[in-house]
Design brief:
heterodimer; A: mainly alpha; 2 domains; 16 helices; B: about 525 residues; alpha/beta; Rossmann fold; 6-stranded mixed beta sheet; 18 helices
Chain lengths: ~375, ~525
C-alpha cells in the first residue's frame, strides 16, 4: 500500500524535495552554529523573517511575482532543451520601453498601463527572437549570443536613462518617479468594503495587479506548453530534436519562437520591475535577479504550474536571507552558502534514487541470508 | 573438465531499479563455441559486461578458470585473459591496422613505438589464427569485415584466452560471415574459448557447440546445439511458438508510386555516396535493397524522406516531386518512414507513447481542434494503436523509454502504418528487436503491401530482404549493381556477389527491370 503510493511520480517528487530541504536545513543550521553567537535567534530570523511584518511579506510576494515570470521565461527555453541567459537584456528593454510610456505618454491609466505592458512584451519578444534566429540559422551558441545581447541591452538602457530620461540636474542615474497613471494599481481594488485592506497594502506593501497577471501567464504558458501544437513542437524539440525533424516539425521556427516567447515573458517581468516595484527607472534595475529565473525553472523542473510555488519558496529564502542578514550577526555570505546548499540538494536529481538503491540492495542481502527464494518475479508488492 | 567461465547466482540491479539479471548461472567449457541468445532486454549484454568487468554484479560469483574474480574494470578482465569485441568497433580510424592491434601494449624501442615490430607481431598472430589483415592499411580505409578481424586480433594480442563477440555478424555479408565462422573454428582448435551473442538462430546452429537461452534476466536453459532446432530455440527465447517463415500472398503490382531518376548524393567530405541511382516502386510490391551496410542505403533513405538534400536527380511520388523538400512536405505526399535508428530518429524516448504517435498529425484535424490539440482524440488513437499493434504497456501516457526495444519499434510501426501511406520506406525495420516483435513487424509489412501500399525495404539482414521482397535491387558503393525481378529465384550467394561489387549487370539489362 505504502509502496504503491511511493511508486506515484508526484509522491516521489514531493518526498525527494522534502528530503532535500530537510537535509539542507540541517546543514544550514550546522553552519549557523559555527558562525553565530546566537544561532537559534539567527536561524529563526532566517526561517520566519518574511512573515514577521506586513511590509516584509509584501516584498517577498513582489519578488516572487518577478521570479515567477522569469522562471516561466526560462522554463519555456529549457523545455526545448535550449539554454538562455537573455532574461537580463529582455527585462532591461522591457523596463525601458514600459517606463518611457509610463513617464511620458499622456494617456489615462486605463490605457497607459496596458500600452506599457504590451510594449514591454513586444520588445521582449523581438529581442528574444534574435538569439533564436542566430541559433536556428547561423548555429550561433545561444549562451554566448544571449550574454552578448545582454551587454548591448544594458548599454542601450543606460544610454537612454542617462541622456534622455534622467531629469536635468539630478545627482544620480534615475528617472523621476512615475506618475500615478504609470504605476500598476494595488491588487486589492479600492472599493468601500475593502477600504481597510486597500489602505494597509497600498501604504505598507504595494503588491500590484501584476499578481493576477502573473497567475494568468502561468495558466497561459501551461496551455501553450501542453495543449497547443506549438507546445507539442517545443516539447518534442526538447525531447529529441532529430525525432522532431524526422516527424516533420519545422525545428528552426520552433527554436526562434520559443526564444521569442521566453523573451516576451521576461519583457513583462521587466515592466514589473519599473511599474510595480521601483516605480521609477534606476540604473542596474535588474541586478541580483536577472539570472534567478534559472534557479526557479530548475526547482520547478520546467513545469509552469510548479513555477509560482518554486518562486514563492525561493523568494522566501531570499527574503529570509535578507532578514537574517539585517537582524543577526550572520553575514550575507554565509546566508548565501546556506541558500546554495538548499538549491544544490533540491535540484540534484539523484538524491532519492541513491537512498532507494541502498535500501533495495540491503533488502536483497537480507532475503538471501534468510534463504528466501527470490520474490522479485512478479511479486514486487509483496514486501 | 571444469568450466572456464562459471557465473553463479548473478544478480544485477541498475541504479534505476531495473533488474537485468536475476540469479543467472552460466558456464562455458574450455575450447567451445558457446552461443548466447535471447530477446532484447533479456540481460545478455549485461551478463557479458559483467564477465568483461564493465559492470559489477550486485551479487553473485564470477569464477574464471577456477579462480573467483571481482573485476573492477575491463582492464582487470583483460589481465585475466578475457577479450571482447563490441558491436560498435573501438578502433582508431586514422591509425594503421598494426598500430591498432598493439595499442595499449606497444612494442617500443628507446621509448618510441617500434613500427616494424608492431607489423611483424600483427603478421605473426594474424597467420597463427588465420585472420587475414593488411597490417599497414589505415583502418579508415578497410572494410567492416577486416575491421572486425582487427578487433579480434587486438584481443588476441593482449593474450585473450576467452573471446566474447557481441553480435559479430550483424554488419557482415554472407561471405564475410562464413569467413568469420571459419576463423572462430580455428581459434577454438588452437585452444581459445569463444562466447558469442546473436539474434540469428541460423548462425547458432551453424557454428556453436552449445547454446544458452536467456529470457527476462534469467537463463532458460543451456543445450548442446546438436539437440536444438531453430524452432525449439525460438520457443525458449519467446516462451511460445514462433513462426519461422511465412508464406506471403502473391503480389498484385499496381500503378507506379515512386519514381527515382538519376539520384546522386555527394557528402560533405566530397565522397560520392549515391551515384546516379534510378528505380521505380509500384503499389502492391515490396522492393528490397540488398547491400552491405555503408554502401549508401542510409543516405538513400534520408534523401528520399527529406532529411538530407540530394546533390542532383529527381524523385516523384505519384508525379509530385519530393526531393529536397522538408520532411513534412514528404510526409504530406503520403510517404511513411520507419527510420533505421529508432532511438535517434524514430522516437522521443522521454515523451509519452501517445505523443510519439502523433508527430506526423498533431497539426491537422481531427487531432487539432481550433487552436488546441484535442488530447481526447490523441488518447483514443493511443488506445487503438496499443491494442491493434500489441504494444505491451499499461498506459499510453507512459514514456516510450519504459518499453522494450521490440515494443518501441511497434510504436513506430503503429504510427507509420496508421497514417495511411501510399509509399512506405522501411529501413532496418527489425534490427535489434526480438523474434516475436520481428515476426509481427514482418507480417505487418506484408499486409501493407498486400493492401496496395508501395514498400521500399532496406535491411542489412539479407534473409529478411530475400524473404519479404518481391523485387530486389543490389547496391554497392552507391551504385545499383543488379536487379532481380523475382526475389524468390535468387540465391543468397548470388546476391552476395552483387553486394560486394564482384558481379554487375549491364545498364541496359537493368533498365527494363528497374
Amino acid at each position: 500500500m505504502i509502496r504503491k503510493l511511493y511508486m506515484k511520480p508526484f509522491v516521489r517528487e514531493l518526498l525527494r524535495i522534502l528530503l532535500a530541504v530537510t537535509i539542507s536545513l540541517v546543514l544550514g543550521f550546522i553552519i549557523t552554529l559555527l558562525v553565530s553567537e546566537d544561532p537559534f535567534g539567527a536561524y529563526q530570523a532566517f526561517l520566519t523573517g518574511p512573515l514577521t511584518r506586513i511590509n516584509r511579506t509584501g516584498e517577498w510576494i513582489k519578488e516572487a511575482i518577478t521570479l515567477t515570470l522569469l522562471g516561466l521565461s526560462v522554463a519555456l527555453v529549457f523545455k526545448a532543451q535550449l539554454f538562455s541567459l537573455g532574461a537580463e537584456g529582455q527585462m532591461l528593454l522591457g523596463a525601458l520601453v514600459s517606463g518611457t510610456i509610463a513617464l511620458f505618454v499622456p494617456l489615462p491609466a486605463i490605457l497607459r498601463i496596458p500600452l506599457a505592458l504590451v510594449a514591454a512584451m513586444l520588445v521582449g519578444f523581438l529581442f528574444g527572437a534574435l538569439p533564436g534566429y542566430l541559433k536556428a540559422h547561423l548555429n550561433a551558441n545561444e549562451i554566448v549570443s544571449t550574454l552578448m545581447l545582454n551587454a548591448i541591452a544594458l548599454r542601450l538602457y543606460d544610454y537612454f536613462l542617462i541622456f534622455h530620461i534622467k531629469p536635468d540636474g539630478a545627482g544620480y542615474n534615475a528617472s523621476d518617479f512615475f506618475p500615478k497613471e504609470g504605476i500598476l494599481p494595488t491588487f486589492i481594488p479600492n472599493v468601500p468594503f475593502l477600504a481597510d485592506a486597500y489602505e494597509l497594502f497600498s501604504r505598507r506593501a504595494n503588491v500590484t495587479i501584476m499578481l493576477y497577471i502573473a497567475i494568468a501567464v502561468v495558466v497561459l504558458v501551461w496551455y501553450l506548453m501542453f495543449r497547443t501544437p506549438f507546445g507539442y513542437e517545443l516539447r518534442m524539440l526538447g525531447a529529441n530534436i532529430k525525432f522532431a525533424r524526422y516527424g516533420g516539425i519545422d525545428t528552426k521556427k520552433t527554436v526562434i519562437l520559443s526564444f521569442a516567447i521566453s523573451g516576451l515573458v521576461a519583457g513583462l517581468a521587466g515592466a514589473h520591475l519599473g511599474m510595480g516595484i521601483h516605480e521609477k527607472l534606476i540604473a542596474n534595475i535588474t541586478i541580483g535577479i536577472a539570472f534567478e529565473g534559472i534557479v526557479v525553472a530548475l526547482l520547478a523542473r520546467n513545469n509552469p504550474v510548479a513555477v509560482p510555488f518554486a518562486a514563492l519558496a525561493y523568494g522566501y529564502l531570499r527574503a529570509g536571507a535578507d532578514v537574517m542578514e539585517r537582524s543577526s550577526d550572520v553575514s550575507r555570505e554565509m546566508v548565501l552558502v546556506i541558500q546554495a546548499i538548499i538549491i544544490l540538494l533540491v535540484t540534484a536529481e539523484r538524491v532519492l534514487p541513491i537512498v532507494q538503491q541502498r535500501v533495495s540492495a540491503s533488502r536483497r542481502k537480507k532475503q538471501n541470508n534468510n534463504e528466501v527464494p527470490s520474490i522479485e518475479e512478479g511479486g514486487q508488492n509483496a514486501v | 573438465m571444469p568450466p572456464i567461465i562459471d557465473l553463479q547466482e548473478i544478480y544485477k540491479i541498475y541504479p534505476n531499479g531495473v533488474m537485468a539479471n536475476k540469479g543467472v548461472n552460466f558456464s562455458v567449457d574450455p575450447c567451445e563455441i558457446h552461443a548466447l541468445v535471447g530477446e532484447n532486454g533479456a540481460g545478455k549484454s549485461t551478463l557479458m559486461k559483467i564477465i568483461y568487468g564493465m559492470e559489477q554484479p550486485t551479487e553473485g560469483k564470477v569464477i574464471i578458470e577456477g579462480v573467483e574474480r571481482e573485476f573492477q574494470s575491463s582492464r582487470d578482465a583483460i589481465d585475466a585473459g578475457i577479450g571482447m569485441v563490441h558491436q560498435n568497433f573501438m578502433l582508431v580510424p586514422s591509425f594503421s591496422v598494426a598500430e591498432n592491434v598493439v595499442l595499449g601494449q606497444e612494442p617500443t624501442q628507446r621509448g618510441l613505438l617500434n613500427k616494424q615490430q608492431a607489423i611483424e607481431d600483427t603478421i605473426k598472430i594474424s597467420e597463427q589464427y588465420g585472420l587475414r589483415v593488411n597490417p599497414e592499411a589505415i583502418v579508415d580505409s578497410i572494410n567492416v569485415g577486416m575491421r572486425q578481424r582487427v578487433e579480434i586480433l587486438k584481443a588476441l594480442y593482449r593474450g585473450a584466452n576467452i573471446l566474447i563477440l557481441d553480435e559479430p555478424t550483424a554488419v557482415l555479408t554472407p561471405q564475410e560471415t562464413q569467413e568469420l565462422f571459419i576463423a572462430i573454428r580455428k581459434l577454438v582448435d588452437q585452444g581459445k574459448t569463444v562466447v558469442f551473442i546473436t539474434h540469428k538462430l541460423r548462425e547458432v546452429k551453424e557454428v556453436s557447440d552449445r547454446v544458452t537461452v536467456m529470457r527476462k534476466g534469467e537463463v532458460i536453459g543451456t543445450v548442446p546445439t546438436s539437440e536444438a532446432t531453430r524452432e525449439s530455440l525460438a520457443r525458449m527465447m519467446v516462451g511460445r511458438e514462433v513462426l519461422m517463415s511465412f508464406e506471403k500472398p502473391k503480389s498484385k503490382r499496381g500503378k507506379k508510386v515512386m519514381e527515382v531518376q538519376n539520384l546522386s548524393y555527394v557528402d560533405d567530405t566530397g565522397v560520392q555516396v549515391l551515384d546516379n541511382v534510378s528505380f521505380n516502386i509500384f503499389s502492391g510490391e515490396i522492393l528490397g535493397i540488398a547491400g552491405v551496410e555503408g554502401n549508401g542505403q542510409t543516405e538513400l533513405v534520408e534523401v528520399l524522406t527529406g532529411l538530407r538534400s540530394a546533390t542532383s536527380g529527381n524523385a516523384l511520388v505519384n508525379g509530385k516531386p519530393v526531393l529536397n523538400k522538408t520532411p513534412r512536405e514528404v510526409r504530406m505526399a503520403r510517404v511513411s518512414h520507419i527510420p533505421e535508428d529508432r532511438l535517434t530518429n524514430g522516437l522521443a524516448l522521454d515523451a509519452s507513447i501517445n505523443e510519439n504517435l502523433i508527430v506526423d498529425r498533431y497539426f491537422r484535424p481531427p487531432y487539432k481542434n481550433g487552436l488546441l490539440i484535442d488530447y481526447k482524440k490523441v488518447s483514443e488513437l493511443g488506445k487503438k494503436s496499443i491494442k491493434e499493434y500489441g504494444i505491451l504497456t499499461p498506459d499510453g501516457e507512459l514514456p516510450v523509454s519504459s518499453l522494450s526495444g521490440g515494443n518501441m519499434q511497434k510504436v513506430i510501426v503503429a504510427r507509420e502504418f496508421t497514417s495511411d501511406p501510399e509509399l512506405l520506406i522501411a529501413a532496418q525495420p527489425t534490427r535489434g528487436i526480438d523474434v516475436g516483435a520481428t515476426e509481427f513487424v514482418r507480417e505487418q509489412l506484408v499486409r501493407q503491401r498486400t493492401d496496395g501500399t508501395a514498400v521500399l525495404l532496406v535491411s542489412a539482414d539479407l534473409g529478411e530482404v530475400m524473404s519479404l521482397s518481391d523485387r530486389i535491387i543490389a547496391i554497392y558503393e552507391g551504385e545499383i549493381t543488379g536487379v532481380f525481378p523475382d526475389a524468390a529465384s535468387v540465391t543468397e550467394e548470388e546476391l552476395g556477389l552483387y553486394m560486394l561489387g564482384i558481379k554487375r549487370q549491364a545498364k541496359e539489362e537493368m533498365e527494363e527491370l528497374l
